[in-house]
Amino acid sequence: MVASHNTPVQFDIRNFIEFDSQNRAICPACQSAKGESYTKRNLSVAPNGAYKCHRGCTSGEIRSALGAEKPRQVPTAIAKPATNITLPPHRIKEAHDRLMASDGPAKQWLHDRGITDGLIQRHQIGITRAKVNNQQHLPAITIPIPANADGTQFYQKKRVAPWIDESNQPENYKPWSQYGIPNSVYFTWLPANATQTYLCEGEWDAIRLGDLLRNADLEIACATFTSGAGNVPGQDQLDLLPGEVIIFYDRNDAPLKNGDRPGEIGARKIAKALGTRAKIASVPMLDDCSVKGWDVSNAIEAGYSLDDFKQAAAESLALQPDEPKKRENPLRARMIKNIDLIARAADYIDWLVPDLLTPNELFILGTPPRTGKSLFCLTLAKAIATGGTFLDRPVTQGSVIYVNCEDGETKVKYRQTAQGWEQWGYDLPVYWFNEFKLSELSDLRELIEEIGDVRLLVLDTLSRVRNDNAKESSSEMGRILEPLQQLARDTGTCVLLTHHLSEATLEKDDDPFKLLRGNSSIRSTCRGAMVMLPGENCYRLISENGWCDLMDLNVRIQPDTLEWKLLGNWNPRVDGDMKQQILDHLNLVGIATIQEIATELNFNAGSVCTILHRLQREDMVEKIGGKGRQLAHYQRSATLSQQLNMLLGHQNPDDTSDTACPNKKILENDLPLKVINSPKSDQSETQENFPHERKVITFSQNDHFFSNTPPLLGQSCKPDPVSDVCPNSPDRLLGQGDQLSHRLDPVLTPLKVGDRAVYIGPDKPMSMLCGNRHLEILEMQNDRAIVKNKKWVVSQTVPLADLRRV
After folding, report:
1. Are strands 244-249 and 278-282 parallel, antiparallel or unpaired?
2. How many secondary structure helices (H) and strands (E) does the chain include?
3. Residue 731 belongs to domain spanning
């Protein structure tokens, strides 16, 4: 913008030019050079009044066209006109005499415009040269403009060779040359006792209409402005116009993009400046007129008389004051009534990783140096990309964008190989950036929207992706991180930042999150935080997210797979009866969202969400993530269903003929209607409660017998470990005083890879799949085994306790 630092304080271009709602207007210098028909809005203004012409006009040219040049400091109150701009009367006469004596195109052009020799003489119109560029001058018709009241000095406004065809005009040609001429009133007829003024848009119109008024000897003045109707001179000049002012504006102008016509805009602008003594009249025009920019001269040439103009003046209308524009409050669009907020808010938390990470929010992970935060993020990325589990928790499958600013590609490949990415051919929906800065966030947003199903964005680390010098302990960090939170909210993506912990010592009962560098500003912006601290033979992962209680988990890296693992099991509280109804509903409808299930079964949506997470962990349902912020869907797991359909062809209509499941009558004897599993902690011990006459057994969640055993499809509660024996098993039903065998006997000869076994577990779908078939043990992982039958398409994972060697 052209700043007006050296201009007087009282100058404000908005007092001379009316700008539209986009703060754009027609540049007066461009219009002066191109002619009145020029309508491009090249001039823009800033809120502080700074202005700029996008065609390149300087501030001096713009102010000169407005007649508001920078004032010169002079010793006297009134300075004499500069000799290089104003001319004495004899110079004006010389130019006039040259024109009168000539018989060239200049006089012919004037005659064609209706300017007779008499009008040429009355207004001292002449001819001289005008400089077009550094190498060329052209002849120009001159109009003398009085520069003072006593008639001793004149400005010379020049119309440059208007008879030259546009194709022959030289470079930098401008139709008008009026450098140094202030924006002022130019009278073509001014009777002494004038009570009214007809105001025209240009000098030629004013000369023609003024001649009609003079011949009629009416006390009506005729005038125009030297800088065109769109540029209003100062109030001192407006005060020179006598009486009521009738504004005749050009008609049929080509409309602007917003539909307004320049002539009407200029007339309203002048009328607004003149106030109550101004009226706007329409130039008389033919009904079927096709001439663009129809003006006073066109009307006179078409045969309209002074009476027609007087009639138009009588019908003129005062400017109606503009209705004050009501300012639109930007907060109104963001204000939400409580009932609307409740109606549109979800009834549940659709976790990305239950209890740890939610979608559409910003999280931060802080660890000491060399702890394995990059391995933590890589383990999480693999779980999201494959739809597996993370720290024993089911996740929402989707794409991952990983900004890796620390580790080289060779190390990343080595870690992926160790984690088993090659079983998918390394072709997982994970997208990598080795370089990225937060200033490129808008470009990253575009990529996230293109991919469509990005669930996780990892930024490893915060210090590497920043491109500013703000201190981590300052409030500036909130300003830096806020766009990341907005990105997460807009795209439904979980954004995970990695960060370093300070070297301070954590005292007992201290807040562990205080170790995050800049914790006050960072935690105020991030919606959740996790810190990893050394523990006894493991690490403590402490997590807060505002949705559930503080989590304190014991985790460690598996040396063989380089993956972070949870020590213990994840067992959310589950209502067995609700669990079975949800499974039955999915069997019936096939696929549904959490809200659809909750509505159909009249359940609490939050409880449905928790139960589905448990079912997903037990591989009984699958979660299908939607695109972007669309809701996820759930369906019965295809792993077992496909093999059952392949082997059986259809479901068995007679449940009583199933031989691989426990006897229903045995299971229903004295069992409670509902069983609520262990508390939420991932490391606590659990006690199952049964009727008083039955045996109470206490066991650890690490006990492989009960950790992941799903309930039976036809059962609404968890079976008693003592009575959980298949009727086709060689084991008899144990009584009150009997000792536990098989699955609870720790001294049984352990199974090993390559052994053959049969399935004796309580899971009905697995029993239907396995029957009495011999299963080969392919791999053993802690308390579970991967088994395969030669007729199966894929292998299955079952608890070791549910297998018996054959």
Report:
1. parallel
2. 23, 34
3. 659-805
How many domains does the structure of the chain reveal? 6
Give yes or no: residues 723 and 592 share one domain.
no
**What is d(CA 765, CA 762) in angstroms, rounded to the nearest whole number?**
9
The DSSP code sequence of 617-659 is HTTSEEEEPPSTTPPPEEEE-HHHHHHHHHHHSS--S-GGG--
Report how far residue 579's alpha carbon sits from residue 718's, in angstroms, rounded to the nearest whole number: 11
| The pair of three-digit structure tokens given for residue 304, joined into one six-digit string | 């309209």
Task: Evaluate whether residue 343 is within a structural domain.
Answer: no
Say whether both 411 and 498 belong to one domain: yes
Indicate the residue type of 276: T
Q: Within a 10 A sphere around the Cβ of 286, how many other Cβ atoms? A: 13
pLDDT tens digits, 287-325: 888 888 889 999 999 999 999 999 999 999 998 877 777
Task: Indicate the DSSP class of residue 406.
Answer: S
User: Span 573-587, mean pLDDT?
Assistant: 79
Judge contact between 583 and 712, C-beta under 8 A.
no
Q: To which H or E segment does residue 593 belong?
A: strand 591-593
What predicted TM-score, i.e. pTM, was given to this entire model?
0.46
> pLDDT (tens digit, 9 = 90+) per residue, 672-692?
333 333 333 444 443 334 334
Contact call for residues 627 and 453 (beta carbons, < 8 A): yes
Residues 580 and 711 sit within 8 Å (Cβ to Cβ): yes
Residues 267 and 353 in one domain: no
β-sheet with 51-53: strand ranges across: 24-25, 43-45, 51-53
Query: Please, are residues 458 and 498 in contact by the beta-carbon 8 Å criterion?
Result: yes
The encoded tokens of residue 619 equal 């591989």
Helix, strand, coil in percent for the chain, rounding step 5:
30, 20, 50
Handedness of CA 86, 91, 94, 100 (dihedral sign): positive
In Å, how far are 131, 575, 578, 581, 608 from 601, measured between CA atoms?
89, 14, 9, 8, 10
List the beta strands (DSSP E) in 147-189: 154-160, 176-177, 185-189
pLDDT band at residue 506, thresholds of 50, 70 and 90? Answer: low
Mind giving me the DSSP string for 45-76? E-TTS-EEETT---HHHHHHHHT-PPPPP-SS
Cα–Cα distances in angstroms (integers) from residue 754 to residues 347, 737, 738, in the given order: 49, 36, 33
The gap between the terminal CA atoms of the chain, to the nearest Å, is: 89
Strand locations in 391-517, DSSP E?
393-394, 399-404, 430-433, 454-460, 494-500
Residues 493 and 631 in one domain: no
